[in-house]
Amino acid sequence: MTQDLNPLPGRSALPGLALVKGYNPTVDYMRFLAALVIVLFHAHAPGGQAGETAVGYFTLVMVWFALHGASRHTGPLGPVLRSRCIKLLYPFVVWNLIYLSAKAAQTMVSGGSFWDEVAKWLPPAGSFGQLWFLPWAAVISAGIFMAAQSIRFEIRTPQAAAIGIGLAALVTLGALRLWTHAELPPFLALSVLYLPSVVVGIVIFALRHAPLALLAAAMGTSLFGLMLQQFGYQGAQQLIFAAPLMALSLFLPTPRFRWTKAAGVMSMDIYLVHLLSIAIMSATVGIPATLSGSILIVLLAFAMALPLQIPILGRWLR
Q1: Which residues contact 264 (CB under 8 A, 6 or more apart)?
Q2: Which candidate in 70, 73, 121, 225 could, as Cys together with 148 as Cys, close a disulfide (CB 3.0–4.6 Å)?
Q3: Which of 297, 253, 247, 267 is nearest to 45 (CA)?
Q4: Alpha-carbon distance values, 177 to 172, 191, 232, 236 (Å)
Q5: Domain parsing of the chain, residue ranges
Q6: How is residue 230 annotated by DSSP?
Q7: What is the 3-state secondary structure (H, E, C) of 51-114?
C-alpha cells in the first residue's frame, strides 16, 4: 500500500499553503524582472551575474505552462503543436532577419565581411545569438506535449518522488558535466546547459498536488546546486535560485492591475529587442560598469520594447 504525499486531495498538510488557483500575477511580475536581469547579463553590466538564474526561471515557467496545457489537452495533437511552434518560431525567424540585416548594414559601414559575421551568428560556429532559446523552447514544448499523451506527470507517493528526484539529479549531473568539460557547438552546448531546469520544472509540476513536497524539492534543488558549484560544475547557478523563485511564484498571490498581463508580454519583447539595445548602447556611449550604466541599458531595452505594444507592430514582430 502506497502512502500519499498529500493525504487530503485539494488541501495542504500545512494550513494556508496552497498553489494560487487561476491566473497568478506573480509569475508575470517575476518574468518581467527576469527579462531585465537577462539584459544586464548579456550586456556584461553590473547586476547581470544572476542571468543564469533568470534564464533558468524562464525555463521553469515555460515547462510549467507547457505541462499545464498538455495535462488539459484532449483534442488532436497536431493543431496545438503547430500553434505553439508558430508562437515561438515566428519571432525567431523575424528577429534573425532583423539582426542579420543590422549586421549587413554594419559591415557596409565598416568594410568588413558580411559572410564572416553570418558565420559567427549561425550554427555550428554561432548560436543565433541569444535567440537560440526560441527553437530550443519549441522543441522542449513539443516533446512535453507528445510525452503527455502516454505519461501522467503527477507524483503522489514518496516512492514516485524519490524516482523523479533521482532521475532529475542524474540528468542534471550528466548535462552539467557535458557543459563543463565537453567541447560542443555553441547551440548544442546552450541546449544541454539548461536541460537541468527542464527536469526540475517537470518535478515541480508533478508535485503540484503536494505543496510541502514541492517546496522541499525546490529547496533541495537549491542545495544540490550549491553542492555542484562547490565541486566545480559550471552552470549550477540556475539551480540555486530559480527553483525557489518558481515556488514563490506559485504560492504567493500579488495584486493584479490593468497592466499586469502586459508585464508578461513585455518580458518576451524585452528579450527580443535586448541585443539591439545593447548594440546601440555599446556603439554610442558604451556600457559603463556602474549602477547608472546598468539602469540606462535597462531603460533603453524597455523603451525599445514599448513600440511592440502597438497591436500592428506586435503582430508583425512577435
Answers
A1: 27, 28, 31, 32
A2: 70
A3: 297
A4: 8, 13, 10, 10
A5: 25-317
A6: H
A7: HHHHHHHHHHHHHHHHHHHHHHCCCCHHHHHHHHHHHHHHHHHHHHHHHHHHHHHHHHHHCCCH
Question: Look-up: residue for cell 506586435?
Answer: 314
Could you tell me the three cell numbers for 45? Answer: 553590466
217 grid coordinates: 524539492
Which cell numbers hold the place of 216?
A: 522541499
- Which cell goes with 258? 490593468
Q: For residues 303 and 276, what is the distance between their CA atoms, to the nearest angstrom?
A: 12
- Vertex 74: Cα angle to 76 and 10 (nearest 5): 160
Alpha-carbon gap, residue 35 to 270, rounded angstroms: 6
- The model carries a pTM of 0.91
